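User: Teach me something about this protein's shape.
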Amino acid sequence: MYKKLTLKNGLRVVLVPQGGLAATVLILVEAGSEYETKRINGLSHFLEHLMFKGTKNRPKSGTIANELDSLGAEYNAFTGGQYTGYYAKVQKEKIEKAVDLVSDLYLNPIFIPEEIEKERGVSLKRDDFQTYRDQHYVAPKTLVVVAGSFDVKKVRGQIESLFSDLPKRAKLAKKKTLEKQSKSEALVKFKESDQSHLVLGVRAFDIFDKRRYALQVLANILGGGMSSRLFHRVREDLGAAYYVRAESDLSLDHGCLAVSAGVDHAKIDLVITAVLEEMNRLKKEMVSETEMKKSKDHLIGNFILGLESSDELASYYGGQEIITGKIKTPDEVIKNVKAVKPEEIQAVAKTFFVDRGLNLAVIGPYKSSEGFKKILKF
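Assistant: First, the predicted structure itself:
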């Protein structure tokens, strides 16, 4: 069972003890590409890289990486639309050292001008990084998660000591995402390649919407595995795809469902048409109880298996908390997935599989999107 606490400065801590040989520390901050203005576009991701280049305690570039390597750690950082994360996974007896290292790069970075200049194509200055960090890397926007096998009392005390001086400034909120679309749209990026890569998606809703579990099951039915409808139709029947999958992605104030595929150039029109037809089927035909059960079992099975490792466990609890401020236990999620009904699947399909929210992006040997636009309709 997880434990959540909030320090006096507003920093949130989530501790998820679990048996095993490893433990993971993950620090998340409410700052990502959706917090950027056009002038500083890309800064969140670049800042993530700079954080590893040196700290006040370890000023020499490469020291943090060397020490993490010496621990035998798996470590990295990542930037999304709504948050940035820094993590390290280690043997359980080394977790306190990992907490110290990841905390140091988060709390005490020094932005060395030479390191900034190494990045090509940036018009950004050192002051841009410092200002952005001062605005967003504050206690109320920061979450520290530790999951796996560790001494809860020791790690909690360590986090409280390390992060007690992190500034308690007011949150700088993300600007609301504005969506405006009245017809289907297509975007083409020319590239000579062995296969075409496409993403065909529709707008959906935010992560707080009660229909999110129905959308999750719908995505799984459509393209959630080798027994999904799209795998059968596109890969086996048409022999047209190297991969095909469907996934939902829900965020703080927007969301989507998208089908991704790598396809034979000569069959791309067939694939797009087939995807649209399978989406239409979900609008017109009720999913059978047999297929519903298979899809739910597939979802739940993968979900449970995905929580076996400490890094996935940290991501599961941390991802919920940093976006929604609330955490659902695995049992609650499983219960909600099991409760989805065929009528809910159809209702979601009818609502969102419509031209005004339909979008296609293609990378391949194409110079115009006009041909795709002609077939891009339900």
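Now, about its shape. Residues 268-284 form the longest helix (17 residues). Residues 35 and 173 are 8 Å apart (CA to CA). If you'd like, I can walk through any region in more detail.
User: That's plenty for now, thanks!
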